[in-house]
């Protein structure tokens, strides 16, 4: 979990690097958003973990009595911390390699940390959480690798091109800006990160996962009846 989460942070960093390259060359956030899809494609092909992807299948498993609340919380916390650690390291490398991107980094970071909290910011974070969870839902709904890659590119475009608030992706931009010498503190990042995380969870769980649970109620009932007496343990362990 920690290894795949750390790798996930590195791979999202690839998307941020592509985003910054296009933004620096064109000044166009929509074009840069298309480039960011590289990160989500890498995440999918490498089978790594992104925190906000884990709002769907782990909760479905919990409702189906195939997992426990403790397991879910360990997954979320471990993946979140590992994503941030991997992303921080990757952004340090980007900052050292591409000093010409420092202005874009600071501008992008300030779009998030300087935004006054209000309804618009909350909704942007809800949409950020629901968008990445929907990408997972679309990828779970097909066996076609090309279709899954298209879903990743679409999700990347929406997240970055529209500058939705996403706790992991945008943290990498803030980390890069801080490392590049911008007058942004980790305290400012943490304040922004806290409410963004909450609304990301709400967006992913309420707008996507809850609807999936309602739609799959009969199947979940069957899975609950077939689940082991102690969730998370195989029949050979009981």
Automatic annotation (TrEMBL):
The record, for Pfam families, names: Form_Nir_trans
List localization entries.
Membrane
Keywords, in A-Z order: Membrane, Transmembrane, Transmembrane helix
Annotated TM spans? 30-51, 72-95, 115-135, 147-169, 189-214
- Its main localization is membrane
Q: How does it sit in the membrane?
A: Multi-pass membrane protein
Q: Which InterPro entries match?
A: Aquaporin-like, For/NO2_transpt
Q: Where is the signal peptide?
A: none
| A GO CC term attached to the entry | plasma membrane
From the UniProt record, which GO molecular function terms apply? formate transmembrane transporter activity
Top-level taxon: Bacteria
**Protein name per its UniProtKB record:** Formate transporter
What organism does the UniProt record list as the source?
A: Curtobacterium luteum
Q: Which lineage? A: Bacteria, Bacillati, Actinomycetota, Actinomycetes, Micrococcales
């Amino acid at each position: 979990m920690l290894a795949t989460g750390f790798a996930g942070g590195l791979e999202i960093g690839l998307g941020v690097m592509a985003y910054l390259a296009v933004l620096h060359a064109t000044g166009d956030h929509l074009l840069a958003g298309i480039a960011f899809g590289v990160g989500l494609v890498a995440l999918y092909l490498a089978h790594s973990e992104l925190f906000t992807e884990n709002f769907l299948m782990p909760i479905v498993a919990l409702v189906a009595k195939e997992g426990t609340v403790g397991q879910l919380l360990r997954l979320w916390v471990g993946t979140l911390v590992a994503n941030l650690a991997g992303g921080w390291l990757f952004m340090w490398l980007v900052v050292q390699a591409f000093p010409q991107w420092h202005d874009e980094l600071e501008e992008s970071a300030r779009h998030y940390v300087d935004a006054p909290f209000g309804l618009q910011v909350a909704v942007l974070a809800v949409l950020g959480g629901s968008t990445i969870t929907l990408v997972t839902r679309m990828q779970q709904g097909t066996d076609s690798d090309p279709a899954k890659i298209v879903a990743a590119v679409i999700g990347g475009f929406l997240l970055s091109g529209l500058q939705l608030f996403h706790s992991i992706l945008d943290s990498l931009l803030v980390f890069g800006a801080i490392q590049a010498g911008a007058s942004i503190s980790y305290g400012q990042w943490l304040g922004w990160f806290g409410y963004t995380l909450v609304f990301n969870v709400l967006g992913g769980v309420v707008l996507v996962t809850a609807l999936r649970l309602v739609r799959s109620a009969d199947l979940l009932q069957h899975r609950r009846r077939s689940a082991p007496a102690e969730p998370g343990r195989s029949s050979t362990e009981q």
